[in-house]
Amino acid sequence: MPMSPARRSPVSSRAAELTSSGLVEVFMLARTANAVDLAIGTPGHPEPPAAMLAEAARALREGHNQYEHPSGNPLLRRRIAELLTVPADPETEITVTAGATEALYVALLSTVDAGDEVVVFTPGFDQFAAAVRLVGARPRFVPLHAPEWRWDPAELAAAFGPRTRAVLLNTPANPTGRVLDRTELDELAGLCERWNATAISDEVYSAFVFDGRRHLSVAEVPGLAGRSVVVGSLSKSHAVSGWRVGFLRADRTRSEAFQRVHQLTTLGTAAPLQFAAAHAALSADPAEACAQMAARRDLAQAMFSRLGMKFAPVEGGCYVFADIGPLTGGHEECLPFIRRLHERTGVVLAPGTAFFADPARGSQYVRIAFNKSLETLRTAEQRLSAL
After folding, report:
1. What is the mean pLDDT of residues 246-250?
2. Does residue 311 share a domain with residue 274?
3. Which of 9, 248, 252, 352 is deepest in the core (most CB within 10 A)?
4. pTM
5. Cis-peptide, bond into residue 153, ω within 30° of zero
6. Residue 34: how many other CB atoms lie within 10 Å
7. Which domain does 151 fall in, by range?
């Protein structure tokens, strides 16, 4: 018998099923007095470009305070297209969004229908699975295996099927620091072609790829290029996460759908901030910024290796994903370990449980953000050395 209207919940089932982020507690710890925040990826490095800040002030004063073109400031779309490794038409293939988060939802809402399946890797960015569920689709999880966090080809192939509509990628990856290589992307291309699936690739950390590697976008790979969506953002590369300036890159047909969905969700992104990003140099010195981030990676890897944690070398992005088992003997899970470390040193890390479909798989892992100022990292190093 159907539930009577009087007893029906005022909250939709999709909202009721959402859980709080596994990072909520460390958000609070990071805000305590004397805390050294290596948990949250809010950039402490690089500095926001001075030219962008000056242009933002100019845009506000000069009256760029009303609606912008829904698809994005035309000059900004051209600037974004110039940054990409594969040419894109800024008029028909670039959509400016309210950060990479909106970009992800617009891509999913435009690609999948209720009941479709989306392949998602675990461990991975914690918003991916929640986003898939919120749009009414079903995540099909593929485990990545330590220590190098690679998938098993048989497990990957088994996750695809007639209901598969998309696969969500993240390269360089949060939290693992992996950079997908050509062999892996070719393997995904074959599966996407076989099952007519779209590859939605979050490439927001593409500016930070280390040790002579080169970021390989899905837009460059035959078999994926024509069925791919790139999600990008200025949040990490230009350290303006609060501006919420992201973008989508895709073929014309997909982009037209994105722009319709985008107009009905946010309508547009903050006009003065788009103006500022468009009129400042978006790629002032990417090699130097990457080298400085690599130095911070080296410092973070050295200090936590000395502490006894184990991890694969970080290939890109701004996180170390570390095994605390050598320190705990497997007898203490990550959240109690993080609380104890915070009590003794003030250093705050993120729990690995937040990044796994099965939180139990992450009980012996922590994520360490190193996109911080050298002062912050040196303070953490000094405090940890006293243990």
Report:
1. 98
2. no
3. 248
4. 0.95
5. no
6. 9
7. 50-279
